Amino acid sequence: MKERILVTGGTGYIGSHTVVELQKSGYEVVIIDNLSNSRADVVDSIEKISGIRPAFEVLDCLDYEGLDKLFTKYVGIKAIIHFAASKAVGESVEKPLLYYRNNLESLINLLDLMPKHKVDGIVFSSSCTVYGQPDELPVTEHAPIKKAESPYGNTKQICEEIVRDVVTSGAPVNAVLLRYFNPIGAHPTALIGELPNGVPQNLIPYLTQTAIGIREQLSVFGDDYNTPDGSCIRDFINVVDLAKAHVIAIDRILTKKQKEQVEVFNIGTGRGLSVLELINAFETATGVKLNYKIVGRRAGDIEQVWADPTIANNVLGWRAEETIEDTLLSAWNWQLKLREKGIQ
Ligand code: WQD
């Protein structure tokens, strides 16, 4: 068994997939989650996939005392992957303080406790949202950080700065900031996947819920963008591929391979796909016809963004491997499994 790793938000969408990959690589995982946007039975599903039940505590990262006790209870935690955060762009506009409190304070608490408990490093979930609409595509890690479009996006920018400032202050903290593009899909076993609360805001859960009949019609937000087919372009990254990038980041921190104390990587495929192309790919992959209509633009949307993942490819030795067809099929199988379980 390799080192003990703390995964905050480990019952969530990306967190749960990452826990499985960490276990597959031999790491011992401790999950904490406040279950604000996930279910405790995800732990059972993780165990079904990996054959190993991760330690799990219901705990909020805002609970400083609780975190302090956790590090004492699970002695020897060597690194943290910090997923736990609020992530709905629209909600963040309505409830900015909730977003600033949750996302900033949870990171601050963890960074504060790391030296005391001799935790070597942290992998932080950042986002391509920090680039806004890039001037050049594909976007590299050196692109300027643009003013955030939402409080959610701003928390990602500020969190990156907090990490850098803490490291600059001389704290014994190593960090990898992973800037995710658009994570989609589910585990090939269909035992874990994305489980949004209420009406989905993101494209894929809305699309699969429409395909299965929970929603009547998918609205495509805009076909008058300056793109080949007029719809927005994104870099859709398979969630298991994304999870694997975290394991590599943890290996890198713990084997002291980092060139700098804070490193940042784009985690994307390097390919841009338009919303309409994605719908097409879904229909081809699954054989299911999708009911959709073009409507007006959604406020705050970036026109087009996709990653230059060269640094992650070369430095981490990581690359996105899954095809878009398999990824969309996995999202569809997950939706079918949810219906089977009577969840959605
Ligand atoms: C993708 C495209 C929509 C829904 C945001 C965050 C990002 C990340 C993921 C964490 C856009 C279009 C969508 C629909 C549509 N954060 N769309 N109809 O906005 O790229 O990224 O979520 O969770 O940090 O910024 O993702 O999936 O909402 O939209 O046409 O019903 O699909 O306009 O072009 P987005 P998304």
Spatial separation of the terminal alpha carbons: 37 Å
Q: Per CATH, which architecture of the domain at 4-184 and 238-267?
A: 3-Layer(aba) Sandwich
Give the tally of β-strands.
13
Would you tell me the overall average pLDDT? 97
CATH top level of the domain at 4-184 and 238-267 is Alpha Beta
- Which class best fits the helix and strand makeup? alpha/beta
Mind telling me the CATH superfamily name of the domain at 4-184 and 238-267?
NAD(P)-binding Rossmann-like Domain
- Summed up, the helix count is 11
Strand content: 15-25%
Order of helices and strands: EHEHEHEHHEHEEHEEEHEEHEHH
Q: Report Rg.
A: 19 Å
Low-pLDDT parts are: none
CATH fold field value of the domain at 4-184 and 238-267: Rossmann fold
Q: How would you characterize the largest beta sheet?
A: 7 strands, parallel
Please state the overall shape, judged from the principal axes of the Cα atoms. globular
Helix content range? 40-55%
Strand order, sheet with most strands: 3-2-1-4-5-6-11
Written account of the structure:
The chain is of the alpha/beta class and 344 residues long. The protein has a domain at 4-184 and 238-267: Rossmann fold (3-Layer(aba) Sandwich), CATH 3.40.50.720. Helix content is 40%, strand content 17%. The chain is built from eleven helices and 13 strands. It has helices spanning 13-24, 42-50, 64-73, 89-94, 96-116, 151-168, 203-212, 239-254, 275-286, 310-316, 324-340; strands at residues 4-8, 28-33, 55-58, 77-82, 121-127, 174-180, 182-184, 218-221, 233-234, 236-238, 262-267, 273-274, 292-295. It has a seven-stranded parallel beta sheet with strand order 3-2-1-4-5-6-11, sandwiched between helices. Strands 7-10 form a two-stranded parallel sheet. It has a two-stranded parallel sheet with strand order 8-13. Helix 6 (151-168) links the parallel strand 5 and strand 6. UDP-4-deoxy-4-formamido-beta-L-arabinopyranose is lined by residues 87, 89, 127, 129, 182, 201-203, 206, 218-221, 232, 234, 275, 298, 301.
